[in-house]
């Protein structure tokens, strides 16, 4: 399988975001292990997972659907991080840093979605026989 999706900046940032949130969650109280901690971990893992899964789809419309799912999970994670701050599990500085990272990731997802949805863009269905997995690049073009 081609690793082209792993070269997407949006994928790289989503992986860093998931890692950073995991580090934050590791400091939560033990009684949150099966509650907020678990829910937050599932949400942040779903962001890069949906980017990767969508990039392997045959049509750009399908990829866009997975990018919208990634955005939804990102918003879910940010809501849970905001609650974590309210509960006193994370401080203002940590929350601000992770929020900035999430905002950058959200903007990158929006840009990629816009480029893929642009009818005049180069991200169109390939003609002919498929020789390898179709992967969409950050600039909206396809890398086979």
Describe this structure in words.
The protein has a single domain, classed as 23S rRNA-intervening sequence (de novo design (two linked rop proteins)). It has 4 helices and 2 strands; from the N terminus they run ααααββ. About 8% of the residues have low confidence. The termini are close together. It is an all-alpha fold and 144 residues long.
Helical fraction equals 55-70%
| Category from helices, strands and their pairing | mainly alpha
The unreliable regions are 123-133
Q: Report the CATH superfamily.
A: 23S rRNA-intervening sequence
What's the CATH topology name? de novo design (two linked rop proteins)
From the alpha carbons, calculate the radius of gyration and give it in angstroms: 17 Å
Strand content: under 5%
Question: Kindly, what is the distance between the CA atoms of the first and last residues, rounded to a whole number of angstroms?
Answer: 11 Å
Q: What top-tier CATH class fits best?
A: Mainly Alpha
N-to-C order of helices and strands: HHHHEE
Q: Number of domains in the coordinates? A: 1
Biggest sheet strand order reads: 1-2
CATH architecture: Up-down Bundle
Number of helices in the DSSP assignment:
4
The pLDDT mean sits at 87
Dominant shape: elongated
Number of strands: 2
């Amino acid at each position: 399988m081609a690793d082209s999706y792993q070269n997407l900046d949006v994928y790289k940032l989503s992986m860093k975001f998931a890692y950073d949130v995991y580090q934050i969650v590791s400091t939560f109280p033990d009684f949150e292990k099966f509650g907020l901690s678990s829910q937050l971990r599932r949400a942040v893992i779903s962001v890069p997972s949906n980017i990767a899964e969508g990039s392997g789809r045959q049509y750009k419309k399908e990829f866009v659907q997975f990018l919208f799912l990634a955005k939804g999970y990102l918003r879910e994670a940010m809501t849970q991080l905001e609650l974590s701050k309210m509960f006193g599990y994370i401080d203002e500085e940590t929350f601000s840093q992770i929020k900035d990272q999430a905002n950058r990731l959200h903007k990158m997802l929006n840009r990629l979605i816009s480029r893929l949805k642009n009818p005049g863009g180069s991200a169109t269905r390939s003609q002919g026989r498929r020789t390898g997995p179709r992967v969409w690049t950050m600039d909206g073009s396809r890398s086979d």
